[in-house]
Amino acid sequence: MKWIRPDSPDYDPARKVFNAMIDRRPAVIAQCSNDADVAEALRYGRENSLAIAVRAGGHSVAGMSMNNDGLVIDVRPMKSIDVDPESGIVTVGAGVTWGEFDHATQEHALAVTGGRASTTGVAGFTLGGGSGWLERSFGFACDSLVSVDLVTADGERVTASARENPELFWALHGGGGNFGVATSFTFQAHRLGPVVHAGFWLWPGEAATDVSRAFRDLALAAPDGVGLGLLYFTAPPEPFVPEHLVGKMATLIVYVYAGEPEEGSEHARPFRELGPAVDLVGDTPYSEFNGSLDDPPDHYNYWSADYHDELPDAALDLFVESARNLPDATSQQLIARWGGAVGGNAGAATPLNNRNAAWVSHPYGISPTPEEGQLAKAWVKDFRGKIAPYATGGVWLNFIGNEGQERIRAAFGNGNYARLARVKRDFDPRNVFQGNQNILPAGS
């Protein structure tokens, strides 16, 4: 256990999270290496009446892993990774990132749906559901859970699985950090790689309308093994970008096939026939692909999201219009294709609402300065208002900031929210863990 206070030289690095918009100053940070450390930190928090936040990857865009004047339980030292190559069972500590997870599992051609940014922590990502490029094949990260170990507000270590504390296990499939401090996750990994057919194609901005409509139609027809996203952004000054496109609005299709590379190449053919200006789709290590679109560090982030059953031309025109008015050179718009293992009967095992949505839209304000960050925040909110007629309800909580109880309830639906509230009452009746997308205990 390492205690870090404001007078420590380690304090500023320890309180820094990925979103530069978050600048919070806790009274103390407890860096925990095991369950006993977590229980001790919770006891200290109780005795000193401190608000508690839990920090793993620190990738919450709302900064929920940090607080002011409270206690932050930092589980990043929990870096254990155990992989059984034969069974595919993978157990990791709560401080592991998806880049570290992929590196360890891909040595044995195993994978779980991980974050679209490899710097995302396994813990918060999975507890929030876990949406990533492999979801159409393997479901969300939480769908691959076998068990979770956590420490409750009273310092008790419990295990949640299909057999042990099954109602808590259900709640941990998207209910976030509401129920305790997760310290260990066990997954049933899937066979993949280490080489996959993946990458992206890039078109100039003037092709955005045609590419958007073609992408929609081809994505709807693509097999479940194909993971897809359509990204609108400003072409960066990278070696792969033709000089005449740098600094201009561009359209990107992200592609990965969760199967044999030869099959992936064949399924990629209809997209390639759209004639991209840049073609970087090919046989590549999965672990490299899944880190290729990491968010830039030290930027001011404001995000939101919506679900869509359909994206008619008029809706796609709104995306293109929004992309032509990006607030800065690093903000982006993403449309991700759902379906496959995301929907169907999978939703019954999780509290997540509207898993049968066909699409998720995700405007990212990612700005290099505070001033531009405020402009990006206004841009995100403006787009959400315009796209609202085409949204179908529900939201992916890991994709949004602090948007209030109405959005939290929309993420689960009234019935699932009520059930989650009962689990919250059973495991955290005093709402000790409220530094999250907070579920209020039943009866509170």
UniProtKB/TrEMBL annotation:
Ranges in coiled-coil conformation: none
Gene3D superfamilies, per database record: 3.30.465.10, 3.40.462.20, Uridine Diphospho-n-acetylenolpyruvylglucosamine Reductase, domain 2
Keyword terms of this UniProt record: FAD, Flavoprotein, Oxidoreductase
A molecular function GO annotation: FAD binding
Domain FAD-binding PCMH-type: 21-192
Pfam families in UniProt: BBE (PF08031), FAD_binding_4 (PF01565)
Domain of life: Bacteria
InterPro entries named among the record's database cross-references: BBE, FAD-bd_PCMH, FAD-bd_PCMH-like_sf, FAD-bd_PCMH_sub1, FAD-bd_PCMH_sub2, FAD-linked_Oxidoreductase, Oxid_FAD_bind_N, Oxy_OxRdtase_FAD_BS
PROSITE patterns for the chain: FAD_PCMH, OX2_COVAL_FAD
Family listed: Belongs to the oxygen-dependent FAD-linked oxidoreductase family.
Full protein name: FAD-binding protein
Organism in which the protein naturally occurs: Pseudarthrobacter sulfonivorans
